[in-house]
Amino acid sequence: MFEQRPLSAWRTLSLDRFLLGVPHYPEHVDESFLERDAVRIAAAGFNVVRMGEFAWNLFEPVAGRYEFALFDRAIKTFAAHGVSTIMCTPTATPPRWLTVAEPDLLRMTASGAPHRHGSRQHVDTTNPRFREHSRRITEVMAQHYRSTIGIIGWQTDNELNTSYSESFSAAALDEFQLFLIARYGTVDALNEAWGTRVWAQSYNNFSEIDLPYPHMPVAGNPSQVLDYHRFLAHATAMFQRDQVEILRRINPDWFVTHNIGAIRDLDMRGPLASDLDFVGYDIYPFLFDERLRGGHAYLPAFHLDLVRGAAGNLIVPEQQSGFGSQPGFATPVPEPGEMRRMAYSSIARGVDGLMFFRWRPAHYGAEIYWMGVLDHDDIPRRRYDEASRFAHEVGRIAPEILGTTVRIDVGIAGPDFDNEEAAKSYSLGLPTPQEAAMPLHRYCYEQGIACGFVHPEDALHRLKLFFVPHWMLWKPEWTPLLERFAEQGGTLVIGARTGAHTPDNHMIQVTPPGSLRTLCGVAVEEFGPLPAEGAPALTAIWGLSEPLASKPAESGKRQHVISLGEARIPAAFWYERLVPDDGTTVLARWDSRFLKGEAAITQRAAGRGRVIYVGSFLTPALTASLCDLLLPQAGIEPLVAGLPAGVEATLRESDDRRLLFLQNTTSERVEVEGLPAGFELIEASSVQHGRLHLDAYGCAIIKLTSCTSAN
């Protein structure tokens, strides 16, 4: 077994260069294009291409016959021009002859319909027979390319689980039962963990257990549902591990990565990430029409921070370059300058390798309108120029970037697979922990405050404030880690419902927040959901201890209010009735209806730090009020004071340098003032008088004169 690398939000990459390039599909164009492509790719400043992830039908056109000549020539041609190759295992698209011969390899939906050939990710990765085929094609490809000049690493599969993650096939049922045997050992232990006394669900042996079909006829056992998704995540990681073990055995000099797409049944704090040298994450800022959702700049920052929080610095194997489309959707088109800006935003958040998707668009198939660096007519235009400008800039300053990690002052607990899935298994209409963290993360993003995701098992001493966003499932071993953080001077903020469930997804049998009771200095004696604003039922308005201007509640609405001084801020989602312990102070009180005057937010001193308990969920208004109160006391300031709206600010740092990244996400020229002294690396000029101008979608990287790290 190969050695796994410990996971950390601050794990760096072991690369000797910044990877810059494009995915290339030699199977999509005439072979006469190869030489011209290699010349232009190298001239653009790229040093790597990625290929092969959808070409199993070409590598093995019929069972047992392997053909590599086309890709051999492509790899050799690129290498001759100084462009390396990342080869991919092609297991996301098994060939038709395989599913004809073994139709039971297809995924099965809950309705009993098998997936069909003609799309992708249609085969069941939980199926042992498909794992055998996956190992076979990986072994043959790795042996063929074991000494090939130009191949520097491999990508496993392609965007595991992005298209679909569940399976209700016979093979999935068999494997689920084996997973449960390994997890629990005895059926009695499983019955206890699942609480099967409810609704007469007890099992006499593992063979009686079925998959948790949705609504058959009503909702199933939440603990069973949670274990099913644990199984899917485990099966996905083991499917990948098969390939990783083969690749490392055949050539230990190769790096191995994967390109995460949609984060669906992927445990990024488990072997999925720790088996790899580093993680990849595909970035399409305009996918799902994020501009209309007000987040085409923000949402990629959120997701990059989330993935980096699991496994550290990463690469982007696919970065949007232009218009994207499949038959069911179409994205907006990045304006001139946005392609480069979005790429710099990725680097600012811990990316040490980036490939624009794709070199050129296909002329047929389901992605003919997914544009690349080139257009269909093979003529370089503004996207090629923009990509080339970016690649030459980053290639020149890469030594300054590599080896640095992203500064985090405000840490948000995450990602944690069990807590996210447990919230989905019994949602109560509440946000999941990741969704509940977005108001704080977005506030920090807009204010230019160093913020990111950090797991409680990571290096909390590097943070100044740590927020746990409603982690119901609580492991007792996490509590001492939080205690140490607070006692050493940190500000710890605990969200409502945290610690209310056991790791088996049972309600705890003591007063919430359970094992966190002493640390938080508060008991939760009552709780319940808050309906949508304006509904004729219990809602709430917070009031914080610092007066803030706020819109008064409309008369006639039955609202609950919490008073923090004179500020009255509507609450949302959830209320908790708190009873503070002796020595615990009240920061905010409910200010209406039956909770009027009772504690809503509490604070307890812990060593040199403090613990805040919030008896509800964060909203943008409550987040702003709390941050105004807590961040200055924690010594947290924006990276740039008075940051203009629409300008991103992020800091990457190491022991000997600090790099301040600025990106203008707007279409208007802006001036940024109050900048620290330093040298701007992209334009190679000093920052004069603490200010600089950023053109529409303009970018800057300032190497600060003071290199002392604050973390």
Automatic annotation (TrEMBL):
Substrate binds at R120, N158. Its EC number is 3.2.1.23. Residues 441-636 form the Beta-galactosidase trimerisation domain. Keywords: Glycosidase, Hydrolase, Metal-binding, Zinc. It is an enzyme of class 3 (hydrolase). Residues 25-394 form the Glycoside hydrolase family 42 N-terminal domain. GO terms for molecular function: beta-galactosidase activity; metal ion binding. It comes from the Bacteria. It catalyses: Hydrolysis of terminal non-reducing beta-D-galactose residues in beta-D-galactosides. Belongs to the glycosyl hydrolase 42 family. This is Beta-galactosidase. It comes from Lichenicola cladoniae.
